[in-house]
Amino acid sequence: MNSRIEPLLTAKARGHKIAMLTAYDYPTARLLDEAGVDCLLVGDSLGMVVLGYPDTTLVTMADMLHHTRAVARGAQRAPVIADLPIHSYDTPEQAVANSRLLIEAGADAVKLEGGVSHAPQIAAITAAGIPLVAHIGMLPQSVREEGGYKIKGKTPEAVEQLLADALAVEAAGAFAVVVELVKHDAMGPITKALRIPTIGIGSGPDCDGQVLVIHDLAGLFPWFTPKFVKPLATAGAVIRNAAAEYTAQVHGGASQF
Ligand code: KIV
């Protein structure tokens, strides 16, 4: 197993809560790495917060490879996990081939969306020696079929299905599982049932770690902030103000530039 992944494998046993953030470019990766973030996710959320698409379903392997290379250049210490985009892992063979490309681009591990339904892909990728993070709960790549970003785990049957998904991805070889937008009181039993860490996003405190989109945390996408995020900075306002000040200075004939 890749040595950069090692601390993530032992985190749950050590009681260390995993702090994961997305990064899509070199300077952000370098800043987050310097800040001590445990791992960086080149999420296909880049389709929305970097490329301006309405959701993640237009993101391609070419996009993911381009951004993974940039993030890998900036991450000196933190392991880099890269998302397999929609339709890049429809079959186990395709999943392995595309995972290899992401690893060659500098990722230490890959992530895909799906539970029981994607156990064959997860088993094939991990059998090829590629570390994998699974992603269950609300699956952004299925947003069009689902008709929106809906909270999961609202009924006992839905919680049973989530538990089955979580156990299936663990059994297939995932070393961690992202659990998105799951009703908070469903998370405790899932986290307890697994040996691998649960990394929540909008799923409450009963997870072994948390992940957020850096643009949401830093206030860098001020036009929309998910309900479960409390931004810790106003980077969007900082950039807008600097640009307005620069424009005013240039218009006023400032010579400092
Ligand atoms: O694409 C992404 O950024 C993700 C996180 C939201 C978990 O999958």
Sequence-ordered SSE layout with sheet pairings:
Elements: H1 6-14, E1 18-22, H2 26-35, E2 39-42, H3 46-49, H4 61-74, E3 80-83, H5 92-104, E4 109-113, H6 119-127, E5 132-137, H7 143-146, H8 156-172, E6 176-180, H9 184-193, E7 198-201, E8 209-212, H10 214-218, H11 235-251
Parallel strand pairs: 1-2, 1-8, 2-3, 3-4, 4-5, 5-6, 6-7, 7-8
Helix pairs in contact: 2-4, 5-6, 6-8, 8-9
Bound molecules: 3-methyl-2-oxobutanoic acid.
3-methyl-2-oxobutanoic acid binds next to strand 6.
Q: How much helix is in the residues?
A: 40-55%
SSE succession? HEHEHHEHEHEHHEHEEHH
Structural class by secondary-structure content: alpha/beta
Mean pLDDT, all residues? 97
Give the biggest sheet. Answer: 8 strands, parallel, barrel
Looking across the biggest beta sheet, what order are the strands in? 1-2-3-4-5-6-7-8
Distance between the amino and carboxyl termini: 50 Å
Q: Which ligands occur here?
A: 3-methyl-2-oxobutanoic acid
